[in-house]
Amino acid sequence: MTERPLGKWLNLRMGRDPDIQPVSVRELQEWQFASLRQTLFQAVKNCPFYHERLAGIQTGAVHSPADLEKLPFTTADDLRNGPENFLCVSQDEVARAITLASSGSSGPPKRLFFSAGDLERTIEFFQYGMSPMLKEGETILAILPDSRPGGVGSLFAESISLLGGETVLPVNPSYISTLLNLLLDSHASCILGPAIQIHALARMLENKGITINHVRSVLLCWDVLPQTSMQTIARVFGCEVFSHWGMTETCLGGGVECHSGSGMHLREPDFFVEIINPATEKQVPDGHKGEIVISTLSRRAMPLIRYRTGDVGCIMPDECSCGLPLRRLGAVEGRLDDGIILPGGSRLDLGELNNIILAHKDILDFTVDYHTDELALSFKLDVLPGSKPSPQIKQLVMDYPKIQQACANHNLKISARLANQDGTIHSGFGKRSITVNPIKAGNL
Ligand SMILES: [Zn+2]
User: Which of 332, 364, 393 is the last residue of a domain?
Assistant: First the structure.
């Protein structure tokens, strides 16, 4: 892949000739902080929440990441407690509102508002980010929700039509057999979607002995799966696999890889990313893992300052071989809240269970419930039609050292049973997580 499209996009966003050499990392950061000061000025002036939260703070003196540390964080609870207080524009200027149900809590949902310009900047990022993967006249199978106007599926389809391509949006992401038929019928040259669906699609293709050669690239979004799953996807589709990171709070697009495995170039004209130690709340150096914190730089309807995303990742310390000054996010390893504390005190993350279970060739997807009152972990397995791997999966889980210890010393019980066996999976468009019953008391 070439660095040109994202380089052109960056130049255009900075008001420069698209074909000249992009700015240096230092120049980009200076430009970002000028945009941030402008955002802070507007937020304090127009947005009730920040008018109060940033009162008495010298927002005009924020010139560097170290200066940014003097500003307070914004949390998901702040958004839940009064999303309208974040509005910087009148309701008439809101082109799209997205409501996010809160997982595992009974609190009010988060609501985010975007102006027409906010959505256009996302379409532009998708367009330039996708252009190396899709040629004019080609089709992409995009496993994305919400094809309503302003929804992610529709924004994405709009960006692909600007490239002269066509988008196929499946209605239900859980019917892997239907996805397979759509893929074969559409002759799609690119697949985009959550990693678990594409993993299941690859397992099913392999099981049926179908070889296809029309897919040139796969772009995974939302979820990170183990290296083994990524390798399966690359092998079965015979193509490069790229990663994308984003969330509703980043107006959907967030970062995209320029080369397979290179790390995701961040959407730096639109937000500044810090990585913090969630316990000390201090910034950590590049190359160190921590919570991803974003400050928006161009958002009109609802700016976010130092918003704690809850996602865990790191900024890659070296420069990308493509030479772009856009910093890169390494693999996003999950969320701060997707782990449980096992009896005995060890933390168990969904990522560890993915590593153990998805490596088995018959597994399409799985869910896991942790019953705190019975001290039991129960797995429900979505498998290839005709396969019965429950005993092997139970054994693989029980052989994992920290689970083995919790079973031996604290009477943790493990069960695994078959769930979907007809080519469907549990996962839809939401993030996968360990479900804790009856309360999330064991969660971090
Ligand atoms: Zn690059």
Answer: 332
